[in-house]
């Protein structure tokens, strides 16, 4: 097999030979993993584009495949667990349980107070405590989001985390919150270290 046919070196639309090579490579690894009932085959769609088709599998094979995938994702799962533990250790009780999806660590919504506390833990200057009796409106919520963005980037050596501010909803009486986006495993690992230090320098 030449290098141009190895998985990871495909053109925008893999050729027939590249697809055949991929089928053989996958079949070899499935056999090595004792997943004989999962049989990849060459196929093409209605446009004639080649692809790999996988057959239906029994429950035993599905369970074993899930076990192997989880083992391969042991690193991300470990970082996700460490991140959740580090947040709880600082009393961030409504910090979402990190989950793994698309090889990234996904977070979720936190209250404005928790987002502000997280920003402080990551090195943001301490400011007067939020008046929780008064629902933070857009300017206050956005200010906290900006503080968290700056502190997060500094604490994770330039790491990136999407944030979206959900403002107070009069119709549903929903409290404002900040939605924290997905993290690469490397960025999440640096966030864990920053939280374990307590306050980033």
Distinctive features:
2 domains, single chain, three-stranded antiparallel β-sheet, disordered N terminus, 201 residues, alpha+beta
Structure overview:
It is a single chain. 44% of the residues lie in helices and 13% in strands. It is an alpha+beta fold and 201 residues long. It folds into two domains: 3-70, no CATH class; 74-197. The protein has a three-stranded antiparallel beta sheet. A two-stranded antiparallel ribbon has the order 1-2. Strands 3-4 form a two-stranded antiparallel sheet. A hairpin with a 2-residue loop joins strand 3 (99-101) and strand 4 (104-106). Helix 3 (74-89) runs parallel beside helix 6 (185-197). The longest helix is centred in the last third of the chain and has 18 residues, at 138-155. The protein is elongated, with a radius of gyration of 23 Å. The chain starts with 15 loop residues before the first helix and ends with a helix. Residues 1-7 have low confidence and may be disordered.
